[in-house]
Amino acid sequence: MDLFTLVLPFSKCAAGLVVSLRIGERTPGEDKPMSDRPSYEQLNTNFNWVIAERELGYRPGDVINIGWMCSDRLCQLGLAEKLALLWEDYQGNQKRFTYNDLRVYSNTIAHFLARLGILPGERVCLFLDRVPELYIGFLGILKMGAVAQPLFSAFGDESLCVRLKDAGTSAIVTQKKHLHKVRKIREQLPNLRHCIVVDVPQASLQERETAFAMEQVPPVEHFPIYPTKAESPSVLHYTSGTTGQPKGAQHVHYSIVAQYLTAKWVLDFRPDDIYWCNADPGWVTGTSYGIIGPWANGITQAVLDSGFNAGKWYEFIEKYRVTVWYSAPTAIRLLMKEGAEIIRKHDLSSLRHLASVGEPLNPEAVIWSKEVFGKPFHDTFWQTETGCIVITNFPGMEIKPGSMGKPFPGITATVLDPRTYEPAKAGLIALRPGWPSQIRGYWNNPAGYQAKFRNGWYLCGDRASIDADGYFWFMGRDDDVINTGGHLVGPFEVESALLGCPAVAESAAVAKPDPVNMEVVKAYVTVKQGYQPSDDLELEIMNHIRKRLSPLAMPQEIEFVESLPKTRSGKIVRRILRCKEFNEPVGDLSTIMDD
């Protein structure tokens, strides 16, 4: 293997240190045609994460810096002039950035932060819409050794304050439109020394606020990359808070090993792909597979800074000839709601591979996508805490609609009996610890992190069953499972049946207290355009699902609603509906989407 040796003039704490960052001769994303690719079974045999380490040019003990890996490394591999980012906003404004642009602009950002006095290990919050500064700034923060703390820009000032205070954040990078939120909470944040604004002149800012225009300041060609190691903190992601107060999940630079390989194999990357990930980098999907995964593989990715609009989305795919699309079940169901007629108005023939993440993908969505796009969505399962895809419908593997698929090679997964924590046919999803992107803890909450482990397993907090072929079938969040007469009913089973009804757009099944059975199933339902809630429609839905569900799983009541409570990442929050039924407090609502 040919090696490049990079000599980095590091900061004072590492003055004079010479570090070799090895790069394999193999071009990222380069692979055989699908027909010639190894099967899931072949890849799973004798698997070792060293595969990814070698392709990334890393050996244990080396410096490993995600910011450098996703920019400078690609330039040294000959991809300097390849397009890395195709960006468009809701007004149609467009920008294009090559991998050399990523390298120089991330250097410029890293240099600017270091000159402000931000130190390695300090938290720097990215509180931005999906603008280029968010994606490139993420790399710049990591290059200078700080910890990136991406937060969803739609958060209100209280939600922002909770997370900045908990993290002891030193600096925040934001836009004029969000500046009022920062100003409102500034006095509550003694650690917040700097507020950096990317789209206004200095004259319009207040004390401790600094203007920074990435494309207008003098570019920094060379920057002394901070020598982070495998266990150096990289990203601090706050969980959605669907089951309590938000927790800061601490990731490390070594996570790129898993994110690189899972992106390459599960998202089926090829060198000429145009990739679109719908997720905002405020959520872990938007960093693991909206920044690190594609750019570590040298892929061109397209970003649309706009909310959901079926016509706009299809136009975007057509315009940029998107080949690989990573979306979410909520978005797919909304597209289903819009119907197939709008799809016929667009040329979507470029699409080659579709994948889904965020919550379980209902069988109807898999079947629908195959009918309208000519290919199914491949469901993937993972979490903020896992950092990478851990269970998936692997490309080329038979898809069982409604199934989560099988564990990614290198991931040991099972389900445990919730009483004994021993393997069972149905129970808690559990993973054997030790994969590269597993978080190393919760910020300021070691007890919460330790509570995730039992008998040598990491507990995901979800329930599933495993069939005879080794496929996992999602049942629901552990705290969402309905116990009716001693029998456990997973809400996903009920919701999938409901979504098979022509009138149903979205659904959520929750427990309702019952004096006889302890709990019974209640369903909340939104209807598609052209349908009106009524007793007759309720009867029609009941008759439809009676053929698909056992008597125990049948809803005892259907309540029609205008919308379902969701997090800003699109996950339905059944906890709120359940608390309503049990007349209990709902807890943290900071990440719930406003209607």
Description:
It is a single chain. This protein has 17 helices and 26 strands. Strands 2-1-11-10-12-13-14-15-16 form a 9-stranded mixed β-sheet, with helices on both faces. Helix 2 crosses helix 9 and helix 9 (256-266) crosses helix 10. It is 27% helix and 22% strand. The longest helix is centred in the N-terminal third of the chain and has 18 residues, at 99-116. It is globular, with a radius of gyration of 24 Å. The protein is of the alpha/beta class.
Q: What is the total tally of β strands? A: 26
Radius of gyration, rounded? 24 Å
Structural class: alpha/beta
Choose one word for the global shape.
Answer: globular
Question: Which assembly state applies to the chains in this document?
Answer: single chain
Low-confidence segments, given as residue ranges, are 1-35
| Percentage of residues in helical conformation | 25-40%
Please, how many helices?
17
In whole angstroms, the N-to-C terminal distance is: 55 Å
Mean pLDDT: 89
**Beta fraction of the residues?**
15-25%
Biggest sheet, in brief?
Answer: 9 strands, mixed
- Strand neighbour order, sheet with most strands: 2-1-11-10-12-13-14-15-16
Describe, in short, the structure shown.
This protein has 595 residues and is an alpha/beta fold. Strands 2-1-11-10-12-13-14-15-16 form a nine-stranded mixed β-sheet, with helices on both faces. It has a five-stranded parallel β-sheet with strand order 4-3-5-6-7, covered by helices on one side. Strand 5 (171-174), helix 8 and strand 6 form a beta-alpha-beta unit.
